[in-house]
Fold:
Amino acid sequence: MKLWGGRFTKEEDALVHQFNASISFDQRLWNEDILGSLAHAEMLKKQGILTEEEAAQIIDGLVAIHADIADGTLAIDPTAEDIHSFIEAELTSRIGEAGKKLHTGRSRNDQVALDMKLYVRARIDDIDEELTKLLTVINDLMKEHLDTWMPGFTHLQKAQPVTFAHHLGAYFEMFRRDADRLADTRERMNYCPLGAGALAGTTYPLDRAYVARSLAFRAPARNSMDAVSDRDYLIEFLSDLSMIMMHLSRFCEEIIVWNTNEYRFVEMDDAYSTGSSIMPQKKNPDIAELIRGKTGRVYCALISLLTTMKGLPLAYNKDMQEDKEMAFDAIDTVSSCIPLFTEMLRTMKVNREVMAKSAKQGFTNATDAADYLVKKGIPFRDAHGYIGELVLRCLEKNCALDDLPVADYQDICPAFDEDIYEAISLKTCVEKRNTKGAPGMAAMQEEISENDNWLAQR
Structure:
């Protein structure tokens, strides 16, 4: 059954039907379509547009259809034009003429807008839940690695010593912002389009506020033309998902590098690695690589929808049907990547000794050596030059600053003394950095406590 056709004198071409139909992908909106129809039917009854008997037939029929689709008794017809026409046709076949009255005061334009908003809102909640699990794992690892020293990097060059907890804390902040962005998107989109009709509302005395409350929206959408043509919320959601994938990809890139034989900072659990068909020694970080690779799919969905919407006049245009397929793919991608990454991170082995050795051998304490001289009254610019000379000497002797004899220090600058070694130890370098957000123990414990409080409120 089509929801249109009275003014047409012949059937649409088969290829046109196939090209125009959306049932292959919008069938996943069956739950939201029925929920919206139930709220609409209740409102029509409340307003006296449907009789009590008609409304009861419609509601009972919709509930039965929902149960049958949910348990697999009813298969969705792949030849239907879309999920809306399929459910209405099924309803009419079950209850007769009363089923045809469900669409009173409603257009497919506001119906599909409602379905997609309900679907996206539910997926925001699902993804937010997965982000909370990931953030909990990161925070737990931070607690475990407060004294796991490692090099911090700039330009992929060893820079200053930090802790693994501090490094993880940077990703906690990224994913926390992602969760905040999802919450912002959910709040901004939470206005109900149903009742907007095709674009200009309806002459029926609908109670749009009642429907909005029934479906847990803040209020009805304020302008009927915007209600049916708005896809800002979906673009914003895809932008949020793109940011999440970007952060996952950055973290995966680091894990891939750390997992190499050259670094050996971490070792991936066997359950999240694969082997080679020809090289028996290989243990590849394929899950991290796939998450990194799938980021492009999510970006593609965002750019596609932005491109689709950029030239559309008000109000609804069929182009907007293209908002779904790649959006669904992006949602599925993120929904699978976050839990996989969470478990991969949780089961990953951290090689503390290797990390600490790398920090020590990379001259990450050079800035602290310069600060040592500054505290003795030497201008920083001069101190910077002296430490540069010391680094050159270490390179010649193939040793770290910690291993250079004090005579070499004093040969370059007499202000050095035996206490230089304590001043540039990794523990000292890290522990004395306790300004807010720094890697020192006190600062990190404060940060973790704030994380605990934030997670407890979710």
Notes: The two ends are 45 Å apart (CA to CA). The chain has three domains: 14-104, 117-194+223-351, 358-443. The chain has a mean pLDDT of 94.
